[in-house]
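Hey, quick one: can you model this chain's 3D structure?
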Amino acid sequence: MSERIEIVAPQAGWPDAFAALKAEILAAIPPPHAIHHIGSTAVPGLPAKDVIDVQITVTDLATFDDSGLVALGFVARYDLVDHAPPGLDLAEPELSKRFYKAPGRPANIHVRELGRYNQRFALLCRDFLRAHPVATAAYGLVKQRLAARFPDDADAYYDIKDPVFDIIIDGAEEWALRTGWRLPAGD
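Sure thing. Here's the predicted structure for all 187 residues.
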């Protein structure tokens, strides 16, 4: 049984929820790493599922020590591979990650390797949407309508949402080239 998809209005407390998670994570894992607030809750004004997404960037995914996270009750799901936009032939390491569900407040922890496609993708998309309110509003509307139409069918929701996001990343790539966007330091 999958979780019900519910999109809520932007919440003022999302940045504080991220900050609390970040502090907990920093105390639990060894450096080197960067921690970012990613996903829809990281974009001001964007409706979202009330789930905080956190990206931990590590230098080597294979040697990442997650024992501190597990000791805190984070539930691990290993060997996941992120979605690739159509037409991109990416090797599996470019999309690989470790994934954790946080205990308590709903949160997803994505551990990705520095310099990989999926690590950059999450940050570029977030920053592009932060800089483009029309794209943000349109994307929010798509998510709201999909959740209303498919509240109990995550496969249908993502089958449509992912290609919409592929259109967004295409625009984000052009924006990154035009503006000289670079990977940001941790949040």
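One thing worth noting: The helical segments are 14-28, 67-71, 117-131, 133-149, 154-179.
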